[in-house]
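CHAIN AND CONFORMATION:
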Amino acid sequence: MFEQVYGSWPSHERFILVSCDEAYLNKYFPRFYKTFTEHWQLPIHVHVIDPSAQTRVKLQKLGISFTYCDTKEHNWASEVNRYRATTGTQNSNAEVQQWLYECYCQCQRFVVLGTKMTPRQSVLVADVDAYAQHTPTKREKKYLFDKTCFSRHSDRLMATFCHFHPRDIGKIENLADVITRQLKQFFVLGMDQTAIKQVFKQDQRISIMGERWIRHFDIKNKDQLKRHRKTIIYHEKGQRGKHKPVEVTWTDIE
């Protein structure tokens, strides 16, 4: 489930990697694709978890590279039991399995990145429910691409929008290994954040993106909304995105 990845990894030296399951792809990817194509003008590579044949055809017609993996044959019942034994949760099997599936989806992009990225590649990783609002300046792009780069929120290095520099490929491979080894033992929710903190938190060479790039605060008032609208990347979580409709559909990008 972790190692078996289908499709071709891109050869571009700079590109954007986005990863999600089919439901999130259908809901959010058209807007992601349209806005990042407009404001970044970089190739986009998609990694999809459990895509249908129809979805693979859509991506082929769009002319972008994609990889995918299949979890349908995985023994999720066993994973649920191991999680129960570890945490003692009383939630239903269906709820726990959904948590574990979402954990896998969040983590797998870093597993794929760490096993596929080449020493010549510089990769932006972004959540599919994020979208580009503004075009970064040359100076801003230079800051971003010069180093591995994260935003920070509540003492966490955030995986929402980040850059991985080829000089850190050893750490990126380690990131994939940390995630894979842990999830093969038993699933830990939020493992992507835990692994990023473990591998990169003490690295003084990484850059931290400020509020011009992306904000992780919920919107409490008009001032917060104004600040969010100024960011280069907007991320729809919590109150800042909960009730906003996604107005871009597949017909807008096909």
Notes: The first strand starts at residue 6 and ends at 7. The beta strands are 6-7, 14-21, 44-49, 65-69, 122-126, 130-132, 149-153, 156-164, 207-209, 233-235.
